[in-house]
Amino acid sequence: MERILVIDDERAIRNTLKEVLEFEEYQVEVAQNAEEALEKLKEKAYNLIYCDIKMPGMDGMELLQMIKNDELLENVPIVMISGHGNIETAVDAIKKGAFDFIMKPLDLNRLLITTKNALDHKSLLQETKVLRKKIATKNQMIGQSKEIEQVREIIAKVAPTDARVLITGENGTGKEIVARLIHEQSNRNNRPLVEVNCAAIPSELIESELFGHMKGSFTGAIKDRAGKFEQADGGTLFLDEIGDMSISAQTKVLRALQENEITRVGSDKTIKVNVRVLAATNKNLHEEIEKGTFREDLFHRLNVIPIHVPALKDRLEDVPLLVDYFLNQICTEQGIKIKTINKEAIQELQKRPWTGNIRELRNVIERLIILSNDKITLENVKNYV
Fold first, then answer.
1. What is the domain-level CATH number for residue 273?
2. Is 284 within the bounds of a domain?
3. I need a surface site. Which of 58, 143, 214, 318 has the fewest CB within 10 A?
4. DSSP string, 328-345
5. Predicted confidence band at 135 (pLDDT cuts at 50, 70, 90)?
């Protein structure tokens, strides 16, 4: 239930607001001045504040500024109320961070609409904050090993450039995270990062997916469609598992990289594109070139800056950090108390081969969280891993 704080020196106004809002099933508390309100704000969290402007002692505008300067309270919407206000007062209140301004005598409909809008706004801010936190934590490379530090150093050097990067490594090592970090640290980070999993798209559709198509160019092409190159214009295109791309599509990708232009399937018109290409593969492309399944000229176009992401078995010293990270991340996502793990259990995890790398480790930690009690033990690891 949303909790609302009403601050007004007039008892009749406090009681009226409390009565009306409680009828709408909000939890309402009142304060007769700014000092009492500050005490309440220290004790409890509120979803919305109604605050009178003219009050003895500290007035509402001063209180508004104090609240907006407090990191813990700055996102709480505040609606200013006054019986002596004018346009200038309202504008000043909004400039100082108030969500809205309403005049006395209070209009019931306006009050309820404002309350709903303010609470919706607060909810949206919270969701955005959670989403940003998830995004920020999602694209992290956890570890302090020499191998991971070397990858970080290369990312820092290459990201601000437009150089193409070929990211190699086993499945589950985090190649896509490297691509996202390069994009985030690049000059193109205000433009899209478009990801394509070349292994997940049938060979007969890969060209349409990458370059787009014209209406009627093949069965099912019911309208013109822009491809991934066009969608990534001005930004970054990440071609994941490029070792699984057909030779035909490789030829067109090579042309796009050479000439910075593409042609939609079913069209003879060229379209200029400005795209930085990052590619990743778990295959040995030198072997694929020898077998004739990968073009050598495309390899050299993509492999301007090679980044190899080490397997987990080559950086076992990072396992404790990764375990701690996944414990916090998964417990937070599932809304449960964060579990701990003892030293012997971590040491046992460091002995494992981890053929699935980071992805496998995360799955194992999730399993241990679900099946273990508050503390994950050596016995848990032996039983469930």
1. 3.40.50.300
2. yes
3. 58
4. HHHHHHHT-PPPEE-HHH
5. low
Contacts 24+ apart (CB under 8 A), 144-151: 144/317, 144/318, 144/321, 145/310, 145/315, 145/317, 145/318, 147/310, 147/314, 147/315, 148/310, 148/315, 148/318, 151/178, 151/307, 151/308, 151/309, 151/310
CA distance 227 to 106: 55
Which residues constitute the domain of residue 331? 313-384
**pLDDT tens-digit series, residues 37-69:** 999 998 888 999 999 999 999 999 999 999 998
**CATH code of residue 126:** 3.40.50.2300
Same domain? For 60 and 113 the reply is yes
pLDDT at 22: 94
| Residue that finishes a domain, picked among 106, 136, 166 | 136
Q: Which residue has the tokens 């919305």?
A: 48
Residues 284 and 366 in one domain: no
C-alpha to C-alpha distance for 231 and 194, rounded to whole angstroms:
7
Summary mean pLDDT of the chain? 92
Q: Are residues 124 and 169 both part of a single domain?
A: no
Q: How many domains does the chain have?
A: 3
Q: Return the pLDDT at 159.
A: 97
Checking DSSP bridges between strand 3-7 and strand 305-308, what pairing results, if any?
unpaired
Please tell me the predicted confidence (pLDDT) of residue 122: 81
Q: Based on the domain organization, do 119 and 191 belong to the same domain? A: no
Task: Give yes or no for a contact between 13 and 111, defined as CB atoms under 8 angstroms apart.
Answer: no
CB 77 within 8 A of CB 49: yes
Q: Which residue has the tokens 């985030």?
A: 184
